[in-house]
Inverse folding.
């Protein structure tokens, strides 16, 4: 069965190559190939897992490069973490591929779209299955490129082209640190294989010495870029310029999760004695989560609200890793993939029905006109807000419980209160969208004439809605827990026990989480039922303006980073033109010129001068020779 | 070893071809380019044959001919041979020249002379990459300069004359100091053979002989050795180029016709790096160790500044010219990193081997990618009636998707995207350089970052955004052009996915070089 993982990985690449080279003209065949590859990947994953079970810990390796005495492997690492991610990526991507058939049906770039989507799936699976840092980095970059291609898919629109470029460059900025971190680890520990590294660090936890914190933070830089954490979060909201299914797949369910996944994969590098990396990671994650949630409350573009909510939830996951909770982080990543993909796809259904209108204040009263979309969007909202018994409740609860387990009381209550606060804000901004979009009056003609989407788009919504509901109780967390905490007790519970488990294990966290969601809901209900415009700007004044303008981070970077970069380029150019070319070369040129002119004076054609110079020369020679 | 003098044949075939083509009447442009292509393809076939016959397990010289006495009193011998490095460069030359011929296909003005000069240039390059005796090598080194000068001067853009003159003077000054350095060495040791000189360089006889025999003023031995090194260094630093000896390059690249720019960037810049690896490192190891810190500073400045300068340019050719400097900067970073810890016995051999392998790969891959990129600029320029500023275009992807798609791939290869050929060379250089000279490698990563910015800026300004209506009927690549470009792109992908194809050839050479560095 060992060929199956290779097949799962390379099928999408084959689809991408075939579409690009041969089948571009045939839209249906291209889409069919792309969808077929990912769905086959999903089925093969199930087949593989059912035949070999979850309890794998193996690698399939071949040598890719051998240089001198060292080798770089290309290998697949198969353990519960990577298998679960493979299932998740192929599953969610498969659903979104199918949905795209309907969403992109009228687009002239239909085939190109599916080729890019397949390239993305391939790259993402590559990250998930990598067994070493180089391979991870290679696929990491490929994910960046496929995201660049998909965000800038409508390249005629300057905003889309800009967003694609911004996404790629911001990610590169993070990768700048990431690659240095990888090189540092490689140079110090002499290996890049995750298994080897773990062994080495297990045998000698101080192998990285004083560089432990530095190495951990440099590696974290990669996650900051990919998972859009503060201060590199600015690319994700702009990336919403891509087609909505892309936002769902890349900027919600998979690519942005790669950073969190990577942190869990190399946790042994972060969790070293004497390393403060985890504290920083937790702080960055918590701060991002709060910041993004606040900004989301005043966004009026439905996709931007979801984008900021993604940032905020990613912040949660990163914070959880920082608090030593890999199981909660991966658990939340999994459930989030379901419900955030669902939310984006439902939003896409609305956007398409309103002919690409994304402003929520142009929507309204869609509940009756688009019943399936309404119910699925509400299901996603309930999951995201963490309402029992939806999946988001369970995963968020584990994160809150994790915060309560911190030994340091300041950290414990700090992060717990932060988590609860964010949960309340999350419920608030999500129900704000629900009330404005689905109830109240229709605020535009488009909203008045909207109709439900075709069933090729609705079935993916229904499937994702089911998983958003049950994702918390199907044993995902138990699986991760067995992998990350092999020593802890395995727990086997019946379904009803699982449903109530959070209240039994961490009643404080569960109750407060629910209360927070309720508070957010009631605030939104009070403010946003049957309103024509947003009442908050009046009440909040300039704060609202600040939030709406995303706290001016783009402007800040424009004024600092980009200007610095431009200045550097201008300086290089100036130095080039004036110092090297102008001054140095000018000096040489001028000097040569001057010498030439002076020597020309000597060639006067005057016989007396020549005779005089000759005599002078003879005299000089005699002087040196004789004296 | 083998009876057929294949290196001599491959060197002199283009020379003969060039003379034949030049002899054609100037009205015969069709015949001229056909012949030129035929000769370059034969050379390519010979190069591939060489590659097939090459024993990759051995790091020493193969296909050796000579040494035959030529001018015995001057120790001038005919001695040629290739190791992995030489073979790689011969292959690159054999590959890029046909591409350059194809890119020049539409040249009608004095075509026989043009294509003849291209073949002469190729002969010069083959000679440079195979010769093992300084005198013999130097002839070919200069032989490649003269055709390049005329190619720029006669077929270049509006500012061709100053560009060609600047190019010639710069390179000539470098050549003269290089020649003087070697004449001084000859005075002392009566030897021009690279292999023997390298041995003397390794065991220190060269320096001790210098101090014994070449007392000049009150210079200490160290100073004297450094003066000689400086002379030789200048020749290669100009050619590569290393900042601040690079100012001839942007204008020469920008003014030269497309095919010539491809030769300049793809091949002639490699002569500089080749010189560093074949001549400076083996013959002057001690001097390089003494100066390694300063050399590294130069390499880092080259990498970062040229990337910044590329970002400031608005002319596509000048952008890629600076980007070329930047990419060769990585080669020199790798080389200097390897030498920087030369005499330490505990120096990690693995890292050095990685860095040098990376340098070799980078030389080949940059030659390929840069040639393709300049080819695309030529294609664009031809379609846009001579325009090539990045602001002149916009939205081209809509009318010419294949052109933009392929050029985009070449751009991403230049950016160092994994999966394409540009990545692994740079990565190996950094892998090796990082543990050897952490500060230099860390600073140089900045170059990678800036490269991403300007490459994406190019893609955005040229391909994306609303279509510039001026180009609403700009034709996409014709099927002929696609067929011509196909081999290059096949290589870009193959080498990206399977770099072992090159590493397998050069690795033994690298291992031997690294072993020799532990003097």
């Amino acid at each position: 069965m060992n060929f199956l993982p290779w097949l799962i990985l390379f099928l999408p690449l084959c689809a991408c190559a075939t579409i690009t080279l041969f089948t571009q003209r045939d839209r249906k065949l291209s889409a069919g190939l792309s969808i077929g590859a990912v769905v086959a990947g999903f089925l093969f994953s199930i087949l593989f897992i059912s035949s070999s079970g979850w309890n794998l810990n193996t690698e399939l390796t071949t040598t890719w490069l051998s240089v001198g005495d060292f080798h770089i492997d290309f290998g697949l690492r198969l353990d519960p973490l990577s298998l679960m991610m493979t299932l998740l990526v192929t599953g969610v991507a498969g659903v979104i591929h199918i949905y795209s058939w309907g969403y992109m049906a009228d687009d002239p770039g239909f085939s190109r779209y599916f080729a890019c989507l397949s390239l993305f799936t391939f790259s993402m699976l590559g990250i998930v299955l990598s067994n070493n840092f180089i391979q991870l980095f290679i696929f990491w970059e490929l994910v960046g490129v496929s995201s660049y291609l998909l965000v800038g898919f409508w390249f005629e629109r300057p905003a889309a082209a800009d967003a694609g470029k911004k996404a790629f460059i911001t990610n590169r900025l993070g990768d700048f640190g990431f690659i240095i971190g990888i090189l540092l680890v490689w140079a110090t520990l002499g290996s890049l294989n995750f298994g080897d590294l773990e062994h080495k660090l297990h045998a000698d936890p101080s192998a990285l010495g004083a560089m432990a914190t530095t190495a951990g933070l440099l590696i974290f830089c990669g996650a900051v870029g990919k998972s859009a954490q503060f201060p590199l979060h600015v690319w994700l909201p702009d990336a919403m310029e891509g087609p909505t299914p892309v936002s769902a797949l890349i900027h919600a369910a998979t690519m942005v999760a790669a950073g969190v996944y990577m942190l869990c994969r190399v946790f042994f590098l972060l969790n070293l004695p004497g390393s403060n990396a985890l504290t920083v990671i937790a702080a960055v994650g918590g701060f991002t989560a709060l910041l993004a949630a606040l900004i989301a409350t005043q966004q009026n573009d439905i996709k931007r609200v979801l984008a900021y909510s993604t940032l905020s939830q990613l912040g949660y996951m990163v914070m959880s890793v920082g608090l030593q909770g890999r199981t909660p982080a991966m658990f939340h990543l999994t459930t989030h993939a379901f419900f955030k993909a669902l939310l984006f796809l439902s939003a896409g259904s609305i956007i398409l029905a309103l002919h690409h209108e994304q402003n929520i204040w142009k929507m309204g009263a869609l509940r009756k006109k688009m019943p399936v979309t309404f119910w699925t969007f509400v299901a996603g909202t309930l999951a995201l807000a963490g309402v029992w018994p939806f999946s988001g409740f369970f995963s968020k609860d584990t994160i809150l419980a994790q915060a309560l387990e911190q030994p340091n009381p300041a950290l414990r209550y700090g992060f717990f209160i932060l988590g609860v606060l964010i949960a309340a804000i999350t419920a608030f901004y999500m129900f704000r969208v629900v009330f404005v979009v689905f109830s109240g009056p229709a605020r535009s003609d488009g909203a008045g004439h909207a109709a439900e989407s075709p069933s090729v788009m609705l079935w993916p919504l229904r499937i994702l809605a089911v998983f958003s509901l049950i994702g918390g109780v199907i044993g995902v967390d138990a699986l991760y827990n067995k992998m990350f905490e092999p020593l802890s007790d395995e727990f086997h519970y019946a379904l009803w026990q699982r449903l109530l488990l959070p209240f039994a294990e961490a009643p404080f966290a569960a109750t407060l989480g629910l209360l927070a969601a309720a508070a957010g809901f009631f605030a939104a209900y009070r403010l946003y039922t049957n309103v024509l415009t947003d009442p908050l700007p009046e009440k909040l004044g300039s704060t609202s303006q600040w939030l709406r303008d995303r706290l001016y981070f783009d402007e800040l970077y424009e004024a600092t980073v980009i200007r610095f970069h431009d200045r550097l380029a201008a300086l290089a150019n100036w130095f080039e033109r004036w110092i090297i070319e102008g001054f140095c070369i000018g000096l040489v040129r001028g000097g040569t010129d001057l010498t030439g002119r002076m020597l020309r004076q000597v060639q006067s054609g005057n016989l007396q001068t020549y005779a005089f110079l000759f005599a002078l020369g003879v005299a000089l020679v005699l002087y040196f020779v004789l004296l | 070893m083998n009876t057929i003098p294949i290196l001599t044949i491959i060197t002199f075939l283009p020379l003969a071809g060039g003379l034949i083509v030049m002899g054609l009447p100037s009205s015969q442009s069709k015949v001229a380019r056909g012949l030129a292509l035929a000769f370059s393809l034969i050379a390519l076939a010979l190069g591939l044959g060489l590659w097939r016959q090459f024993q990759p397990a051995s790091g020493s010289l193969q296909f050796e001919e000579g040494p035959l006495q030529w001018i015995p009193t001057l120790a001038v011998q005919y001695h040629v041979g290739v190791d992995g490095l030489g073979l790689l460069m011969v292959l690159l030359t054999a590959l890029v020249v046909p591409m350059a011929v194809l890119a020049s296909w539409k040249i009608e003005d004095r075509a026989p002379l043009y294509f003849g000069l291209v073949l002469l240039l190729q002969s010069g390059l083959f000679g440079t990459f195979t010769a093992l005796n300084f005198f013999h090598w130097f002839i070919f080194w200069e032989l490649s300069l003269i055709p390049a000068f005329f190619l720029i001067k006669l077929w270049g853009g509006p500012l061709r004359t100053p560009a060609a003159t600047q190019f010639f003077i710069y390179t000539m000054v470098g050549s003269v100091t290089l020649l003087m350095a070697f004449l001084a060495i000859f005075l002392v040791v009566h030897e021009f053979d690279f292999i023997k000189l390298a041995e003397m360089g390794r065991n220190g006889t060269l320096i001790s002989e210098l101090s014994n025999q070449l007392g000049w003023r009150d210079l200490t031995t160290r100073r004297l050795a450094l003066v000689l090194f400086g002379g030789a260094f200048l020749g290669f630093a100009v050619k590569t180029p290393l900042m601040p000896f690079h100012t001839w390059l942007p204008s020469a690249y920008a003014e030269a016709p497309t095919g010539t720019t491809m030769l300049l960037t793809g091949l002639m810049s490699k002569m500089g790096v080749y010189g560093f690896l074949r001549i400076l490192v083996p013959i002057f190891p001690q001097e390089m160790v003494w100066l390694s810190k300063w050399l590294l500073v130069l390499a880092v400045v080259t990498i970062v500044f040229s990337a910044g300068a590329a970002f400031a340019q608005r002319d596509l050719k000048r952008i890629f010219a600076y980007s070329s400097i930047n990419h060769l900067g990585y080669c020199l970073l790798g080389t200097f990193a390897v030498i920087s810890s030369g005499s330490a016995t505990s120096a990690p051999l693995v890292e050095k081997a990685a860095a040098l392998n990376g340098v070799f790969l980078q030389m080949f891959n940059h030659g390929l990618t840069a040639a393709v990129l300049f080819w695309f600029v030529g294609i664009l320029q031809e379609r846009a009636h001579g325009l090539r500023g990045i602001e002149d275009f916009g939205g081209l992807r809509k009318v010419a998707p294949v052109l933009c798609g392929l050029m985009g791939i070449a751009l991403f290869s230049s950016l160092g995207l994994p999966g394409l050929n540009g990545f692994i060379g740079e990565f190996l250089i950094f892998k090796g350089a990082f543990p050897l000279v952490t500060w230099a490698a860390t600073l140089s990563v900045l170059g990678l970052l800036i490269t991403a910015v300007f490459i994406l800026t190019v893609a955005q300004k040229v391909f994306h955004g609303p279509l510039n209506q001026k180009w609403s009927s700009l034709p996409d690549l014709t099927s002929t052009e696609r067929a011509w470009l196909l081999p290059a792109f096949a290589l870009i992908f193959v080498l990206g996915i399977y770099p072992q194809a090159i590493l397998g050839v050069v690795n033994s050479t690298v291992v031997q070089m690294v072993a020799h560095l532990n003097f």
